[in-house]
Amino acid sequence: MLKKLFILVFVGILGVVFASSLFGQEADPLLAPGTTVPFSVDGDRSATFSVDLAADGFAEFKWTASEDSDIFFQIADSSGKVEQKGDSGWLKSAYFVAPKPGVYSIKLFLDPRAEDKKERSGSLTYRNAFTMPPRGKLKASRNVAGYKVELVDVPDTDDSPGDSFVIVKKAGVMKNLLHSDFSSPIMGYSFSGTVEKNAPASERRVAALINNTPDKTGDGNPDVMLEYYSGGAHCCTTYYFIELPKSGPVAIREVDTGNAGMMPIGKASAGGLRFETADNAWAYWNMSFAGSPMPSVILEFKDGVAKPNFALMKKPAPSMAVLKKKAAAARKKISNDPYTEPSMDFEDAFWSEMIDLIFTGHEKLAWEYFDMVWPKAKPGKEKFLADFKEVLADSYYGSR
Question: DSSP for 50-67?
Fold first, then answer.
């Protein structure tokens, strides 16, 4: 009997040891409001802390760290679903409104692509009440479906970075919040559909589509469309759709368009708007930005995600005679120097025709065109094709 009892106790101890090694020695520390804690991360170790929030509960996580441009963060619910993520090299704080009650975690970790995996350390402060910085200025506001959506900019100073906020409230209760850095009047958030009085007719038509379509994502809720410009050239435009339901959490749909804009072109058959944008994947690839192909893409929302509608993007196939003529003209502009890696050696982006064929439903013709256009005397054909397909696979739209 004692022998059996000893075996059961021993097995139980092994189970506890195994579970501890599998799931970690301790649960993530649960932070109280106003708490500041130290953290350290490296190539093999992250730092995770938890907070207990009610529905619409607010959390601000503010950090300081040495060499923090290599540190990423993500906020997740108790099931592990990531609610928010970002790069602390750009942001020094994260703001979060809980869509439902529960325990949420913030994880700080080293960028997996960082060359230097050495330890970074710092401190994290948690607060549960939002306080607008004293330099905050109301840029614009809208009242929609019982909600108030405010755009607030906080200019930077010589020793303090600026901020840009989108604050969503209902009956005085904060329902969601967007935040990013700000250092110039051309940066930050703005309401889509805003035009000058003397704007061209095309801009006024676009604005009318946005302003006269309460539900732009087709999910049954009215929404507000915003655009965010982070500054810089040839990049940096993101669109947000703030869903405003009669009750429940306020979701925010994000569409990162990079170098391209996102223009409504009509109503979608399933509800909401239909948009046109462009694929940025080939920007600067083997060509200057001005000469880079930017294929048109038609987007429609489905299940809260803006997805390409390839049926609407299809076009009739060009004749073989037309393709041969285009290939002959393009081939004259290609030198016979070996192709070894992407560079700016090409005079013209002949692959623009390949991309157009793929995006309009004629992939087989794209590869036939490539065979016709590549000079027989030019080494590196297989390498070029492999590089092109790698870019195509990395393209959000092309890979679909």
Answer: EEEE-TT-EEEEEEEETT
